[in-house]
Amino acid sequence: MAEAKRAQARPGGKLLADALVAQGCSHVFCVPGESYLDLLDGLYAVRNRIQLVTCRFEAGAVHMAEAHAKLTGRPGVAIVTSGPGACHAAIGVHVAFQDSTPLVLLVGQIPFEETDRESFQEVDYRKMFAPLAKWVTQIDDARRIPELMAHAFDVATSGRPGPVVVAISEEMQKELATVPDIGPAHVLPPHPAPEALPQLMEMLEQAKRPLAVLGGGACWTAEGRGAIRDWLVGNDIPVAVSFRRQGLFDGTNHNFVGDLGVGADATLVAKAKESDLFLAIGTRMGEPVSQGYTLFDLAEASGPSATKIVQVYPDQAEIGRVYRPALGIVSDVNAFALAARNMEPLRRPAWSGWTRELRAARVAQAKAPQYDGPLNLAVALQELEKVLPADTIYTTDAGNFATWPTRFMHVKEGQDFLGPTNGAMGYGVPAAIGAKITSPERTVVCFVGDGGFLMTGQELATAFHHSVAPIILVFNNQMYGTIRMHQEKTYPGRVSGTALTNPDFAKFIEAYGGHGEIVEKTEELVPAVKRAIASGKPALVEVRTNPEQITNRATVAQLRAQATAAAAPATAEAAPKPAKAKEPAQAARAATTSRSATPRKR
């Protein structure tokens, strides 16, 4: 019966939909467009096999697909229309590229007979997406759909995973073709070379201060994460995670020592520089994890006094791209983890004291300091993590606010943490919706700033449309906080372009029919989130933070004082007057007081 079906002539739009089914696609995230009406009709025919998620903005659609891929390990699929649709989608492709997330983006294209006439919404996608994607192609012949779609999925998942862009011309989708579907290729992942693990264990036995850093996102399986945990803990190796990869290792484990990313603890960074064996497992050693390429000395990377680096990665092109390793292991991270777990653990490691030292530093930096004002966000977040389910999915946007949960919360085994390593604002909300659609039985909590929320917050309409209920925590400090921080460091007191005027965020979601809350005190956050979960509706909790507390380690006044002192001549006899440094802080506190004058209770 199936053979007879494949022998029938099918239009390109139906062939594309059937190709997605053949590749095991379960969800497609889209903003509809006239450039792919025939594909939409093809998806209608397979609606019992693929859930079509209609989104409100192309960037949101691709972020949802990317979050879906991180949770499932399978390529996320998004479809957008030509020209403006593809341009809006580009940010999501960039996220997938820098996060090494498998993604297939289908883009409607003009009729190929109109090429190079600057037709309506014409874009050369090969040129546009060339720096952002692993591969860009265009299908103009319906007979090649199964072949090119199968290859797109293969490329997205092979080696270092990443995004593939497939342009689909309009008339091709109407063209009839008689071709069979092509399913996924059965390809065994790369395994460590036979001598790799013995060499690694020999290097480990000689080490005194090893440090492992776990990276990578969608490539890890639950079995792989468990195996690498067993090996690292079995050898008492201190474990950090790379930027926004908190879901890879249990933050409560005694071997967890923090994250090497933006806003990393200075003590951990210093200790990483002291390490004599650095195990980079699944991480590319990019700018965030290397602290701006300052973690090790590039010029002495191969010298006798250099830290020995072991890099494990599925793509040989990425091994040694920045730092030359003493040992490079080309392997799927899960295959490596399983092989490592089978190795006999070392007896009485020489570095147990070193591990305890790094762990103590992590515990110390996670202790909540005293902050001015009625809301101690560190304490509130730590109380929140105690009441959230053991399988909670966290998503985060980009911004200074994101360093608070990273520093003070502990993502546990069985939980997931999804965030954009390229710092894309507007990721958090659609990622939360995509995660909830992918795993509707799990609680999904999104951390997002007031700036990032208003970039893609309208995607809450998608949550209502598809009957899923994520919990969105909007941290509102009325500014683009990260840029303001750098502004105060470089041009203290000269505030330009970073202040924001915001709506009442609780009313925003209430307008959709959701559950809204406002939190201004430490003790209000947990009850508000509990009520949000109990409502069963998409919910938003606006957390009104103190604008003066620009980071979890510094205030605006402190940054201004430091910048002023650094700019003053070395012979200066007097420091900047405290009163001038405090005036903006007082104004910020006044603004907080005025907006809090009539608190709304829910």
How would you characterize the overall build of this protein?
There is one protein chain. The chain is an alpha/beta fold and 602 residues long. It folds into 3 domains: 2-177, 3-Layer(aba) Sandwich (Rossmann fold), CATH 3.40.50.970; 196-365, TPP-binding domain (Rossmann fold); 377-595, Rossmann fold, CATH 3.40.50.970. 38% of the residues lie in helices and 16% in strands. The protein contains 22 helices and 20 strands. The strands form 4 sheets. A 6-stranded parallel sheet has the order 3-2-4-5-7-6, with helices on both faces. A 6-stranded parallel sheet has the order 11-10-9-12-13-14, sandwiched between helices. Strand 19, helix 20 and strand 20 form a beta-alpha-beta unit. Residues 1-5 and 571-602 have low confidence and may be disordered.
How would you briefly describe this protein structure?
This protein is α/β, with parallel strands linked by helices and 602 residues long.
Descriptive terms for the model:
disordered N terminus, Rossmann fold, 20 strands, 602 residues, alpha/beta, 6-stranded parallel sheet
